[in-house]
Amino acid sequence: MTNSVFEPWNDPQAKPLIQFQNVTKRFGEFTAIDDLTIGIHEREFFALLGPSGCGKTTLMRMLAGFETPTEGTIYLAGQDIARVPPNKRAVNMMFQSYALFPHLSVWENIAFGLKREGMAKDDIAGRVTEMLRLTRLENFARRKPHQISGGQRQRVALARSLAKAPKLLLLDEPLGALDKKLRQDTQFELMDIQEKTGTTFVIVTHDQEEAMTVASRVAVMDHGRIVQVATPDRIYETPNSVYVADFIGDVNIIEGTATRVGEDRYAMAWTEGQKPLDVKSASTFSDGQKCHLAIRPEKVTISAEQPVDAANAVQGRILDIAYLGNISTYHVELPSGGVIKAQTANTRRISRRAFTWEDSVWLSWTATAGVLLAD
């Protein structure tokens, strides 16, 4: 299989299904989307991720046809869709509230859009049966929405959205109303359904874990702009800014100044009384340039003794411990007052903690463990 099958965004010949070209959306004086250009490919599960007010829902509403761009063009399968009304687009939207008809059965809810389109009765029956099977709701077809669980209602809304076989399905915080365990299960169901139907999914979420789980690519947004678009692993391991590093997952951000000491190698002065950090970076920094080292807690090793060959080692005192079952996170205070988090996997049952509060410990990491970012 070529990369273009799994990663069409890396294929220069691949034409995106959706193209935003220099799109700006203003509401009066407020700019919700600021000169945005992006391509989303067919069969992608694409996530728009960001805090409230970053513009992700406005972007989705423009795709659905509920808003029109102030400037720029949106193409769907090569067609400028700005003037195409919502009901004429090959796009469907699934809302957070699910918006099911309470007086209709599950079967009738799924069939509703098909009936309105004037589809033949036998075809409707076949399509609804297919959707019920896809979402594993065959046994609930005759029930009303209030007679099924939240997770099942979510699947009914999904089945109804997919019944009309849209080119593109928009999901607006679709799992927000579900509890954590059910949400995690449903994420995998969503991925499975997306793969089986081949429909392009665009999900809007502020839940980074959700975006990282379901998406083939994630676009991190801030103030109407896309800060970084990449696969979940690239977003996590090689963020392009302090904002992305800080927004995705847990991270230590250490501020300092860089001095080049070799090819791709920098000495980073960071706090008084501590020797400079040894950092490897493909990005170029001028001597004395302000920078930030972003380093994930799981890349930091905690030990009782000073490590012998570590590129970077600092001593501190355990301030806090978060025990999360599978991992423990140690908050270690340095003599300077700064705090660095280190994480260890709890691979065996704990009968006695290796480290406890107030213990003096050493933290160490390699020269390649962190990402050096410009200010």
Q: What do the pLDDT scores average to?
A: 90
Strand content: 25-35%
Share in helix: 10-25%
The gyration radius over C-alpha positions equals: 25 Å
Distance from N terminus to C terminus (CA atoms, Å) equals 40 Å
- Give the H and E element order: HEEEHEEEHHHEHEHEEHHEEEEEEEEEE
Low-confidence stretches: none
Q: What is the molecular shape?
A: globular
Category from helices, strands and their pairing: alpha+beta
The count of helical stretches stands at 9
* Total count of strands: 20
- What's the arrangement of strands in the largest beta sheet? 6-7-8-3-9-10
* Biggest pleated sheet: 6 strands, mixed
In short:
By secondary structure, the chain is α+β, with helices and mostly antiparallel strands.
Describe this structure in words.
With 375 residues, the chain is α+β, with helices and mostly antiparallel strands. Helix content is 24%, strand content 34%. The chain has 9 helices and 20 strands. A 6-stranded mixed beta sheet has the order 6-7-8-3-9-10, sandwiched between helices. α3 runs parallel beside α5 and α4 crosses α5. The longest helix is centred in the middle third of the chain and has 18 residues. The model has no long low-confidence stretch (mean pLDDT 90).
